[in-house]
Amino acid sequence: MESNRARIAIDAMGGDHAPDEVVAGALLAQAELDVEVLLVGNPELIEASVKENGGSLDSVKIVPAEGMIEMTEEPLSALRKKRKASINVAMNLVKKGEADAVVSAGHSGAAMAAALLRLGRLPGIDRPAIGAVFPTLIAGKQVLVLDVGANVDCRPNFLDQFATMGSIYSQDVLGTESPKVGLLNIGEEPNKGNEASVQTYPLLERNPNINFVGNAEGRDVLSGQFDVIVCDGFTGNVLLKFAEAVGGVALQIIKEELPRGVRGKVGAVVLKPNLLNIKQRMDHAEHGGGLLLGVAGVCIISHGSSKAPSIFNAIRLAKEAADHQVSDRIRSCYQQTVAVANGE
């Protein structure tokens, strides 16, 4: 295997459909994305899944781990008790420089806690945030929303840091020039919203690292007017899951209604390429998961229900973040900000 390829540690035991769907997505990613996947977990189960999915054991690297963090377990105590659990082992691979990124569809709280314990926060970052990419009304344009679940309650300075990290990610990975940053709120005016929103607004206005364009109301999230939207993790998680549900409902309605009648059946055949494009824009599986920004390494937290296509896209996301050295860019940005503040 070529040493210049991104090495992605996969928590093969995490998720509702692990290890089979996780392994299937990892094998596809290794074949199509030119990455090296390190499958972490129970060797016997992983080997069986590799064979089941038509893979060769000679083409993959399996890293043994003992057990996993169950969804019912409290993250911190479980991580300390199960030091050889798959998510702990995967994070240690990044910490030791043996992997460039981690992908996990397991316990999201455990993944975040493991990243903090094993990798640590970047200097200048008080709280990491999970960023999720949403489709917009403008074809080819996406909006990054953060936080979508890492921090239920947020102080104004947390949101200010989210804006900087999100802007760097949008610029470097999504290719957005001078990303437009918005603060999720119930109105456009600077004095609208709760106390945290009102206090955050002037911080974002003064932030030299971002292009802050004002408040974003709920109807603006998918409009394409913003490239990055910041909010607390409680609001962001509700927004994320609501958007996923709406996307699923819309796709189901299209499937049910379009083929009705002779005209509908003919139209469905003619419009098949367009329907595939609609699915790609609306289906959350196409985005793979969220990037945990603010830790000293690349960590992708995928949906617990992820199947092979979603795992594939999560690995693609991890590769892009690793290739663009997002964590290093955030670190450099804060070092420069501190230097300017100190008059250096």
From TrEMBL:
Q: What is its main location?
A: cytoplasm
A cellular component annotation (GO) from this entry: cytoplasm
Asked if the Swiss-Prot or TrEMBL record annotates the protein with the keyword Flavoprotein, the reply is: no
Checking InterPro entries in the record gives: FA_synthesis (IPR003664), Phospholipid_synth_PlsX-like (IPR012281)
Q: Which reaction does it catalyse?
A: a fatty acyl-[ACP] + phosphate = an acyl phosphate + holo-[ACP]
Protein EC: 2.3.1.274
Q: Which UniProt keywords apply?
A: Acyltransferase, Cytoplasm, Lipid biosynthesis, Lipid metabolism, Phospholipid biosynthesis, Phospholipid metabolism, Transferase
Q: How does it assemble?
A: Homodimer. Probably interacts with PlsY.
Q: What is this protein called?
A: Phosphate acyltransferase
